[in-house]
Amino acid sequence: MDAAYLFARNFRNTNYEKLPADIIDITKKQVLDYFAVALGGANKPGVKELVELAVEWGGASQSSIISWGYKVPTPNAAQINATMAHTLDYDDVHETAIMHPGVIAIPTAISMAEYIGGISGKEFITAVALGTDFICRLGLATRPGESIIPYGWHQTSLYGYVTSAAIAGRLLGLNEEGIVNAIGIAYHQSAGNAQCVKDGALTKRMGPGFAVRGGITSALMAQKGITGAKNCLEGDAGFYKVYHDNKYSKETLIGDLGFRFEGKNVSIKPYPCCRGIHPFIDAASKIVNEHDIKPEDVDNIVLWCGPGTLNLLCAPIEVKTRPRNFVDSQFSAPWGVAAIVARRRAGLQEFTPEAIKSSDLLEVACKISVEVDPSFEGAELEPGRVRITLKDGRAYTEQVDLPLGTPSNPLSFEDCERKFYDCINEAEKVIPEENAEKLVKKIKELENVNDVNELVELVVWD
User: In what residue span(s) does the MmgE/PrpD C-terminal domain sit (predicted)?
Assistant: First the structure.
């Protein structure tokens, strides 16, 4: 039996009461975090243009575009709601699976909940937790013992189609066969590559949106009776054969399915940039704060990274220290360190089109060089080591293996709440204070919400 059937059965039969308490807690953090980054990114480049297109296309008024308030066909609304949440590169991440589960699971569930109506907080939490588990298992099982980065896939998008389809199928009440069909239809569309990162293209932030639009469409097609490939994950022309030369671990994929939930290993980001940069930011922060480092006193800075981190976040050095655009800065370990040394923070204001032109950041960035430490290879999240040498000859070195936000060093709900307010205060269109307070309270007590549309009503306003 193809694993697609096992996952469909799990989506169909798992209820809220089967979820461990820690999964319920992290799921609520994910939901608050989603609204933080979505509201913060609602007016960013790429999102505005998608909104314009959706309004031009028109269609049934089914689901809301967060912040903007337009109601459009559900797949189109979900696409935009996912895209805006990925613009800041601040959304949650599963470091080992190398993907962002919340930006797929949550906008799918939100848009579908509005389309269907009457979806309770408990059902919403369950759908998001199952979707998070599914997409993370898909990534974890891929090419065991290898780094997936050199193959060029954008994991979140690639696995997001089938994940979104399964979540939407669950919420629609499809039976096991229907969810299998939805997953199969979504597999026929699955795509996503990392060239956009290398080129600093806006399509990086649009990958999750493509996936959720395709996934929701797949579930709606399955509801109409359209069939998809049944052996779509493990078949002769299934997902792992076509995309990964059949190199996957079945035990990792389905082991303890329904009992072990990968949501427990999701990290909430404290900084708005690629998660691989965070060890460097934490290391630099420790040096700067403990030794009261001033940027004008710095002679040079050396970063040691692992082989996997090098190509994504540290090379070519001329791009990483002088970003061509703000997408480059979001994928630059040198830039994150420069922000800490120059400003003692690495927040939203340090990763903008304006920031990459700022002399204070550029002056520090040009003092940074990179070396590779082969011993870092193989870690779930490669460590970051930073050495700052001052003009008077003093040098300080710090290495961070597990940065803030990891499951072993997690953000609390209150930390996520502070991040939420930081994000909405930076937004071009600020949510009314009363709405923001109600939203946080409802998410904290999400299991008691009768209809998730109560949340949606708070994030669309005049």
Answer: 271-440
